[in-house]
Amino acid sequence: MDKATFTAAVRHYQNTVYRAALHALGNTQEADDAVQEVFLRLFRCEKTFDGEEHLRRWLLRVTVNYCRDVLKSPWRRRRVSMAELPETPVFDRPEQQTLYREVMALPERDRTVLNLFYYEEFSVREIGELLGLETSTVTTRLARARRRLKERLGEDWQDE
User: Fold this and answer.
1) Residue 62 and residue 45: Cα distance in Å, rounded?
2) Is a pLDDT exceeding 60 seen at residue 134?
3) 106 touches 149 (CB < 8 A)
């Protein structure tokens, strides 16, 4: 991959990769590390992409796999939980902070499908392909995550 193409890919997909990593890992520093690692892998990659959508899918797939590896790491198990960390993102409205906190309390696999569906706007079929899951599994995870959010948020829940 030439330097100009790589630079354009970083500019265009940096936020997408960061959001996916943040949702999976729940920590801004680890998400930053994931972004660097994913783009380092892209830089080293000798694969030819069939267009922007192919590149986008490849980047998200590498991000998901990298985050899974980080989450399985023994090093991560020896660290403090997110609840003990004082750092929280700043939101414009209080309900955004509440929603973020509740989404981050969900299991990683539910957070990942929510992020890909609502923020990255992938279809259920595309998420299944990206994560190597059956469409029915993705649908079940989305339904489970929505149900859990509805239970936790109570009357603040808005299913749009």
Assistant:
1) 11
2) yes
3) yes
Average pLDDT of 72-86? Answer: 65
Kind plus residue range of the DSSP H or E element containing 116: none
CA distance 27 to 137: 26
Q: Which sign, positive or negative, has the C-alpha torsion 30, 69, 121, 42?
A: positive
How far is C-alpha 21 from the geometric centre of its chain's CA atoms?
4
Q: Taking Cα atoms as reference points, which of 2, 70, 4 lies closest to residue 36?
A: 70
Contact 38, 66 (CB under 8 A): yes
The residue to which tokens 């590390």 are assigned? 33
pLDDT per residue over 57-75, tens digit each? 999 999 999 999 998 887 7
Nearest C-alpha neighbor of 101 from the set 114, 88, 84, 85: 88
In degrees, rounded to 5, the angle at the alpha carbon of residue 27 between the alpha carbons of residues 57 and 14 is: 35
**34 close to 66: Cβ distance less than 8 angstroms:** yes
